[in-house]
Amino acid sequence: MFSVADTLAARADPLPAGFVRLADIDPTIRQDIRYAGLENFLHRKADGYDAPVCILTAQAAKALSSVQKAIAAKGLTLVVFDCYRPARAVADMGKWTREGGRPDPQWYPTVERGDLIAKGYIGEFSSHSRGSTVDLAIAKAGNKSAVHPACGMPNTGTLDFGTGFDCFDPKSETASALIGAEAAANRKTLLTAMRAAGFRNYAREWWHFTLAKEPFPKQRFDFPVTAN
Question: What residue ranges in 32-156 does DSSP mark as E strands?
Fold first, then answer.
């Protein structure tokens, strides 16, 4: 029999079993969740993002915290841009691409909007909906870097990675030869740190990592991203 306390706790936190809010595991990791606002490639809030909050499986959040601890010794911090993504948000993004449109110089400078799925920049299904995928970068812990990438998400305060998050362009490939030496070195630092914690990278996007031993490898979730 459930007690009143159990009922209140269930109402207070609608997360499915196995999921946590990253801030409850490691509040030192910076969060910059733009799909809950206007400054993203959609130029509007994505369906299902009711708060700018990172939610992950407990395993992924703990692994990410281990990365944070490792790089904090070097005066650095992780900055997460997207974590768990509701299936409804993935569908929303897919529908948006099918509306068509010309290239966007900030987000997809050389690709028509209607080709973003075919080119592999937006997926009709996303590993983010399984809860163990995260998009992220590295920044200096004490202050924000004044890096302004020509393509991708602006004003993130991260180190130079050659492009911003969500730059749908060949320059975003992790091993791209189209970026400078400093950006390449920063990508290598991120890749090495994430691999050490059990994450694997998506080669088309330097910022995209999935926990190799994810707990829900074949399950997609659709609960909204909320603050509590």
Answer: 55-57, 76-82, 133-140
The CA distance from 131 to 153, in Å, is 22
One-letter amino acid of 218: K
Rg of the chain taking only CA atoms, in angstroms: 17
Tokens of 152: 């991708």
Say how many C-beta atoms besides its own lie within 10 A of residue 109's C-beta: 15
Question: What are the helix (H) ranges across 17-165?
Answer: 22-25, 58-72, 87-98
CB neighbours of 107 closer than 8 A, spacing ≥ 6?
41, 151, 152, 166, 167, 168
CB atoms within 10 A of CB 179: 19
Amino acid identity for residue 226 in this structure: T
Tokens of 44: 């509007």
Whole-angstrom distance, CA of residue 116 vs CA of residue 166:
12
pLDDT digits (tens, 9 = 90+) for 36-83: 999 999 999 999 999 999 999 999 999 999 999 999 999 999 999 999
Residue 205 known to be catalytic: yes
Of the listed 39, 99, 205, 214, which one is catalytic? Answer: 205
Residues belonging to the chain: 228
pLDDT tens for residues 131-178? 999 999 999 998 777 788 999 999 899 999 999 999 999 999 999 999
Widest pairwise Cα distance in the chain: 62
Which tokens hold the place of 98? 């099918």
* Inter-residue contact 209 to 202 (CB < 8 Å): yes
